[in-house]
């Protein structure tokens, strides 16, 4: 122990137990350790907390020196959404690439490899996988984070991912219940609404969650979305009908229900984080995720005090808060047992990063889709010019993580040049920068950004030998001398794309 646990009453300890806060820095601040001693049962990690596997292992050891059953959670989907490799790009392709290959054994292997890497660093709860059915190709926040648009495909790969992740002793948190795929609004910015009939929700959105629950997913994350067919008045995170009636009673889920980030505007701008947290616990949630944007002690104290006050004023039943805290502690017990099993003689070895890198690259290569243009073309044979057309990344993905093919092509062809272009860049500027080099144009979700399509039009009219690499949803018709679709922007997807461009895949 590095601090002396404070004596706190049961109600206050339960209020702290249901919080999953973030914090700044790559070591635990003193206030966080003190609150763990007082009853805080979980923390959430983000890219700002991670510099290397060794540093992360030291951080989780520091947290567990306070109490060995503290839950250490992370938002590590692999693919476009990575915290472990936030500065380099992920060694694992994301869900859309895996769903396109449609080999559930491969998905299971990728999830298990990712789980081993997390477990080796001391992380035991992963806010993944995304079980959203991406039925709206213009969805601004899900996209390649989904296994696909077919509910049955998403269901079988969600189950495989849960099985693989939990085989490594890391609890899965299947999200975003009851399904965020048919939205045109990002819940980080506003409250999305899905207006479909109840029968459609059961046949489409809910099918993957049925599979995850049947596979034994240890936790489920709620979505900040409004579904009038289920509850016309409250977003899912704050809805007793959805969390207790549907998820608990109808679907039979008995694990931990975690909210999506409470500071997201879909909840925060309407209810505020304190009121939203009280309503979420009252509705049936067991853990409050906060810390992506608000990562300080004051936030923890505000939420703790809001929950305690709600109980004392009769707004939140004390038994409901106690039940939520008990579910948090039950999951902590499972993860502690899983860590112990992993350390026993004969248990599967924690092989470090090499096995994950191997299976991740294998999966990325299998996912690549290559479409030759109408005329014969030669593979790239000299250092090209890479023009990356980049729109603003959504908050879940973030803008810290590099993506594209320039770095990988530069390894194969030293002297490769690259520039990034936004919406206002004229084609003439790209052509001037390229000179006589062959152009590789890299886009991400070109079907959602008309300006990208116009940029490609101009490039291909002037330089028909341009190679096009699509690293988002592959919805636009293939074009270019060679069209390479990676189905995600993980680092390994860039490696596979570079190999395809050079005729090595």
Would you mind describing this structure in some detail?
With 505 residues, the protein is an alpha/beta fold. It is 41% helix and 11% strand. The chain has helices at residues 10-17, 30-38, 53-66, 95-101, 104-120, 151-167, 198-205, 207-215, 240-250, 265-268, 273-283, 297-312, 318-342, 354-367, 406-412, 427-434, 450-462, 491-501; strands at residues 19-20, 42-45, 71-74, 125-126, 171-177, 219-222, 256-258, 288-289, 369-372, 385-389, 417-421, 439-443, 467-470, 482-485. A 6-stranded parallel β-sheet has the order 2-3-4-5-6-7. A 6-stranded mixed β-sheet has the order 9-14-13-12-10-11, with helices on both faces. Helix 1 (10-17) packs across helix 13 (318-342), helix 5 packs parallel to helix 6 (151-167) and helix 14 (354-367) packs across helix 18. The protein is globular and about 75 Å long.
**Regions with pLDDT < 50 over 5+ consecutive residues?**
1-7, 345-357
Count of helical stretches: 18
Report how far apart the termini are. Answer: 52 Å
Kindly state the percentage of residues in helix.
40-55%
Q: Beta-strand level of the residues, as a percent range?
A: 5-15%
Radius of gyration: 23 Å
**Overall shape:** globular
Provide the residue-averaged pLDDT: 92
The strand count comes to 14
Main sheet strand line-up: 2-3-4-5-6-7
User: Biggest sheet, open or closed, and with what strands and sense?
Assistant: 6 strands, parallel
What structural class do the secondary elements suggest? alpha/beta
């Amino acid at each position: 122990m590095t601090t002396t646990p404070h004596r706190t009453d049961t109600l206050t300890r339960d209020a702290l137990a249901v919080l999953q806060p973030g914090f700044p820095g790559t070591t635990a601040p003193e206030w966080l350790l003190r609150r763990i001693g007082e009853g805080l049962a979980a923390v959430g990690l983000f890219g700002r907390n991670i510099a290397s596997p060794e540093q992360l292992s030291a951080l989780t050891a520091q947290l567990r020196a306070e109490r060995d059953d503290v839950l250490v959670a992370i938002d590590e989907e692999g693919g476009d959404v990575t915290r472990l490799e936030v500065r380099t790009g992920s060694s694992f392709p994301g869900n859309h690439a895996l769903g396109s290959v449609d080999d559930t054994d491969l998905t299971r292997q990728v999830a298990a490899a990712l789980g081993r890497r997390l477990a080796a660093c001391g992380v035991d709860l992963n806010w993944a996988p995304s079980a959203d059915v991406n039925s709206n190709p213009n969805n601004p926040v899900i996209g390649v984070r989904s296994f696909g648009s077919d509910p049955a495909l998403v269901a079988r790969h969600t189950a495989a991912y849960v099985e693989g992740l939990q085989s490594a002793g890391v609890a899965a948190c299947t999200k975003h219940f009851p399904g965020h795929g048919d939205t045109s609004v990002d819940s980080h910015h506003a409250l999305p609404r899905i207006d479909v009939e109840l029968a459609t929700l059961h046949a489409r959105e809910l099918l993957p969650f049925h599979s995850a629950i049947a596979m034994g997913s240890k936790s489920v994350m709620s979505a900040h979305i409004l579904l009038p067919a289920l509850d016309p008045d409250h977003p899912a995170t704050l809805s007793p009908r959805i969390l207790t009636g549907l998820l608990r009673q109808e679907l039979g889920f008995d694990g931990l229900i975690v909210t999506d980030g409470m500071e997201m505007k879909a909840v925060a701008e309407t209810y505020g984080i304190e009121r939203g947290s009280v309503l979420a616990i009252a509705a049936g949630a067991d853990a409050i995720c906060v810390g992506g944007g608000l990562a300080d002690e004051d936030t923890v104290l505000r939420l703790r005090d809001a929950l305690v006050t709600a109980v004392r004023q009769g707004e939140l039943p004390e038994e409901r808060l106690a039940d939520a805290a008990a579910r948090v502690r039950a999951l902590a017990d499972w993860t502690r047992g899983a860590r112990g099993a992993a350390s026993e003689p004969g248990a599967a070895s924690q092989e470090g990063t090499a096995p994950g890198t191997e299976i991740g690259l294998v999966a990325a290569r299998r996912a690549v889709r290559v479409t030759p243009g109408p005329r014969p073309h030669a593979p790239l044979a000299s250092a090209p010019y890479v023009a990356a057309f980049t729109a603003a990344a959504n908050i879940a993905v973030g803008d810290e993580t590099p993506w594209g093919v320039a770095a990988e092509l530069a390894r194969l062809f030293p002297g490769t040049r690259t520039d990034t272009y936004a919406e206002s860049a004229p084609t003439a500027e790209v052509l001037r920068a390229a000179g006589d080099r062959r152009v590789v144009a890299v886009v991400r979700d070109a079907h959602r950004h008309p300006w990208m399509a116009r940029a490609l039009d101009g490039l291909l009219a002037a330089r028909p030998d341009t190679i096009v690499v699509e690293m988002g949803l592959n919805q636009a018709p293939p074009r270019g001398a060679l069209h390479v679709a990676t189905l995600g922007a993980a680092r390994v997807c860039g490696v596979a794309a570079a190999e395809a461009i050079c005729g090595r895949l």
